[in-house]
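Pipeline run #58 for the internal structure catalog. This entry was flagged by the ingest filter as a single-chain record with no existing model, so it goes straight to prediction. Upstream metadata was stripped on purpose; only the residue string is passed forward. Reviewer on rotation: M.T. Logging verbosity set to normal.
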Amino acid sequence: MRSVRIGVDTGGTFTDVVAVDEETGEIVTTKTPSTPANPADGFIAGIEKLGELDVAGIVHGTTVATNQLLEDRIAGLGLITTEGFEYILEIGRQSVPDGYGNSYFWVKPSRIVPVHLVKTVGGRLDHQGGEVRPFDETQAVEVARWYRSRGITTLGVCFLHSYANPEHERRMREVLAREFPEAVVSLSSDVLREYREYERAVTTLVDAAVKPGMRAYIANLSSRLGRPFSVMKSNGGVLSAREVVNQPITTVLSGPAAGALGAALIAATAGHRSVITLDGGGTSTDVTVVVDGDPSVTTEGSVGRFPCKIPMIDIVTVGAGGGSIAWISPEGTLKVGPRSAGADPGPICYRRGGTEVTVTDAHVYLRRIPPHLLGGEIPLDYDAARMAVEALADKLDLTPERTAAGILEISAFNQSNAIRQLTVKRGLDVRDFPLVTFGGSGPLLACRLIDILDLPAVIVPPEPGNVSAFGLLTVDVKNDYVRTYVTRDLALNKAAQIFGELESQAADELEREGFDEPVFARSADLRYYGQAYEVRVPAPAGPLDEDWLREVTGRFHDAHEKLYGYAYRDDPRHAVEWVNLRVSGIGPINRPVIRRDPYPKTEPVEASRRVIFDEPHDTPILQRAALEAGAVVHGPAVIEEYGSTIPLHPGFTATVDEYGNVEIRRD
């Protein structure tokens, strides 16, 4: 029996499964509809579809935490903070979202914890961790009993300056354990040990809010699997399920992170080290920029309306998937998304109770996708889609063809706007980056994105619907640690002490994961004195001396100039300020080998159907598995495979490379 590692990515519409043979590198893939009511059902169904295998390991990309935050399902949550700081969430930050210009029309959203559920405890630390006033244990007991009496069972603890000294927070946890043992508690000094109280408080509360749901889900899955497994984290690493339940906030972008890493590896193997990745699913589209083989990482991310100041792959998500619903605004204009039909009931053409036209229905009406999905497992009802599109067209006073094409055009522009957020708005020229598009719906709008953004090419990997699940098998075990140390005069012995403590903490946790020889990656956040935000740069390993100091500050000047167009290398009026020291602890794995010409070949079969692009065309229908390396296809054409479809518009050419990728370019 073959020994395999399995990756399972649970999406909003489908659960994708990839098994990689550890000896031969052979890849087996499958998909099954997701089960939103209990995602574990879809997970188990996907594993069972693979048949009898000797499973060496399972890695899971989950949306449990993500969906809870996106759907704002947060209740029974309390915040314990320092006396006098009960309005920290109410004050927040003085910025308003883009698009409002000024705050007159903007209504501040409700806080993650309303002020009447915020309680304070006496005691005070200074910014260096020194005790100004002792911890008030009597008041802490009163607070614990107050929450217990009201049934508030999920609590975040965020005391002032606990990033410098966690002692008071740990004493609060001891009180809660004694007085209210049923409570689920998150400490800010465990979740995010760096300064900025508002972001630290919200990040801690998000961790607390998703803990009960994640613990229940992981426990359910563990009991049904009967074996250990790992979970993908937002930072581009994995962690065992038994450990990830203690830091569930690290999974809030679990699935999209795996897709970005898998696509980056596939693109780099084919010779494209800097690309944009686009993961088009049934519910949403996730976009990432990869530079020199590595996806961009940020600590300024958010999920829904909640800032999450943890290291995560820099992903922009828009509600533009195959299940995105087309609707008419009060002004009478056509809109698409962000609301989605998801997996249940799904698009109208699924015939499972869907009543609103979706992007998939538009593709079906224009005949750009086959009359079934997943090799026949999901038949699509053309007549149901046709009648629904015609009814929507009547309301818009348009032809059905114009209506369906308009739905796809709006969806393409929604995706292109997400790409612009990560490129144009950050000083990158989108024309310098090929687009790697994957996911079940990712390749469907490839040609339009080339036109809209003037992209050099679009690359569609083999089995695009399973790239995220494949990406789960390409990543190392990884944990991130941070310590705030604000100074303009870095004491090298102090910095060496902090790095040593962080690396010791990383080594202990990786040892529990079975890694005796971990790898450490240092970095630091720096800024010019007086600036509000920092730039992160890698820091060399080894002893800290004057050469090390010059190297890191030099990297900061270079990075600042690249980001903002200027730097103060030799200007003593603008001192460099150190803010955070960071360590990533990495447990390396053996990555699967990407094989040349991965498809088992099939004989070409002549077929065609009438497909509507700008106008109807009698269009050849090609099976991707029948295309040899070096094959060239001229549009119009439709290239079909088990998990996805590539509609090749007139005026475009698709070429198959030696790894089975399809490269689409304008003629």
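catalog note: The longest strand covers residues 576-587.
catalog note: The radius of gyration is 26 Å.
status: ready for reviewer M.T.
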